[in-house]
Design brief:
globular
């Protein structure tokens, strides 16, 4: 984590919407007028059936860029702003635009997980810098075979949205399709026995929607210094409402949660993923203070 600069981490300001809009004036925080102007994306029955079929057969689906009512490019700039400040990228999710994303794809979530689907307290934002030859998360399975029904249907789902074009040279997603993975239902990852010929790269333009069940093997690629455009993306996790929680508490999709709750969840993500993104003492102390402050705030 880079040293904090430009704007200092001041936890006492984090529950003030004006503080956040001063950092990214083009975005919104608890703006009820803005929130009510958006509706969920619509998909016909044929497309929803195809998504469900793909998830069972190959373990994932991929959709072309959608007609978002959201400023995808400005959201990417917001993530970069926090990188430039030396703050964890996940702070970008304090803005309304980011937490509208799950609501916008709720028709897919309802089709796959049932109308009573829940959003898990697991999310992140990535900035993969090609100038530093950075890469996404290493090969892993989110929750493993326990996240599947006996028919192979997902009980939980990851939705990943690129905010800039994700290519094979700036760290796009890679997946080992379920139907080409002999260890798909094996709780151990035998990556040394994988037939690399079966690996599939998933380049995706900004605003696309990718989703995968949480047993599939996947990872983010390594970027090349030859490319100037970073891979910026966000991901959220969801589960069926009729199975025990994989993590708690659940997050409200509609209505979008309030600022205090967002700050609490963001702090939890920073601490939850500190093994992936080591924290400086300054960031760690500020995060704990923010979490305490927001939890005590009435």
């Amino acid at each position: 984590m880079n040293s904090i600069n430009k704007i200092q981490l001041e936890p006492q300001k984090f529950l003030d919407p004006k503080f956040w809009t001063s950092i990214n004036p083009a975005l919104h925080v608890e703006d009820k007028t803005f929130l009510t102007q958006h509706s969920a994306l619509r998909f016909d029955a044929v497309k929803l059936k195809e998504i469900n079929s793909d998830l069972v057969k190959e373990g994932y689906f991929q959709l072309e860029p959608q007609k978002w009512q959201l400023p995808i490019s400005l959201m990417a700039e917001a993530v970069k702003k926090f990188v430039d400040m030396g703050w964890p990228t996940v702070f970008a999710l304090v803005y309304d635009e980011f937490f509208l994303l799950p609501y916008c794809v709720s028709e897919i979530l309802s089709s796959v997980l049932g109308k009573d689907f829940k959003q898990l307290p697991d999310f992140w934002a990535w900035y993969i810098d090609p100038l530093k030859s950075e890469g996404g998360w290493k090969p892993h399975r989110d929750k493993g075979v326990d996240s599947l029904t006996e028919k192979g249907e997902p009980k939980s789902l990851t939705v990943w949205i690129p905010l800039t074009d994700a290519t094979s040279q700036n760290g796009c997603m890679y997946i080992l399709p379920a139907n080409w993975d002999p260890y798909f239902k094996d709780p151990t990852i035998k990556s040394d026995k994988i037939d690399y010929h079966n690996i599939r790269a998933l380049p995706a333009n900004a605003g696309s929607v990718l989703g995968w069940n949480q047993a599939i093997l996947h990872w983010g690629g390594r970027s090349s210094e030859k490319i100037k455009i970073p891979r910026i993306s966000v991901a959220f996790e969801f589960q069926r409402g009729d199975v025990p929680p994989y993590n708690s508490p659940f997050i409200s999709v509609n209505p979008v949660m309030d600022l205090k709750s967002r700050v609490q969840f963001i702090c939890k993500q920073i601490l939850q993923y500190k093994h992936m993104y080591p924290l400086s003492d300054e960031v760690y102390k500020a995060t704990v203070e923010m979490l305490t402050l927001s939890s005590n705030k009435v």
